[in-house]
Amino acid sequence: MPNTNAAPQLSVQPTRSILTAEAATMRSRPTAQTMASRWHQAATGSRRSRAPSPPARIMALGASLVRGEQSTDLTGFRRTMRDELVALGVPVNMVGSQRFGDMLDNDLEAYGGNRVSQIHEHATHIVPQLQPNMFIIQVGTNNVLQDLDVDKAGEHIEDFINYLLDTSPLSTVPKIMDVNKQYRDLVSKFENKAVLLAEMHPSEGYPDRPEIGDIGPDGSHPTNYGYELMGHIFAESIKEADGKGYLRWPDVNGLEYDGEAGRADATVSTTELPPMTTSLPSSSATSTIPAKR
Q1: Which of 71, 178, 225, 286 sits in a 20 to 30 Å window from 64, CA-based?
Q2: What pTM value is reported for the model?
């Protein structure tokens, strides 16, 4: 599916919203590889008596941080998250109307500089067609950076999550980092629905969260290691969702369970397209929005 080379308004992740006073507390931290191995062993051990998990048809929604801006391979957290799920035997298909980053299964739905309400609008043009059973949403940063609708961010994200759950009823939404207080309060409203908080904030007492040193020189986007940490945390949230029975078999609509099926090019970078208002085209060698069939 198409992806986006550009987006003049690339801002993401306000550093203070993710990372607060941890700057002075630099503790000994495990490597990303150690974390992945430790989590993988725990997850596989807990799965031995369970039926196989449903395939994960994941739509990553957000702005330039979801795109992986400033990461070396432009995949951000997506490669780490996907690799850890695949290592557990979970078929993964990343879906969206764009492709971005040096990985085969690089579909996403991310628009640099967009606020919550704008990303919600983009989603209305693609979610009904692709019917993900898992949404990763990382939104709200640009409300803060642009100082627009900050006090309404919680209300807007509540509307957004309700839209996603209503439009793709087999879906789960593990979430959220920005405008943190509003979002933490909001998650309790979805207590009986398939919505989880993927907590990235070190101030909440969870280990192995991004710290100030894991933000790159632009002050907004994580370093490669910071993105890896995010990928681990999102994978943990998806594992938690699966353990609670939230991950359900996706709608049968012709999409592959494995997003790498039929893909030959590891990197595809095309111009960001306007929101689609018609059904996805069939896969073809010349299509700029290759549907994974």
Answers
A1: 286
A2: 0.71
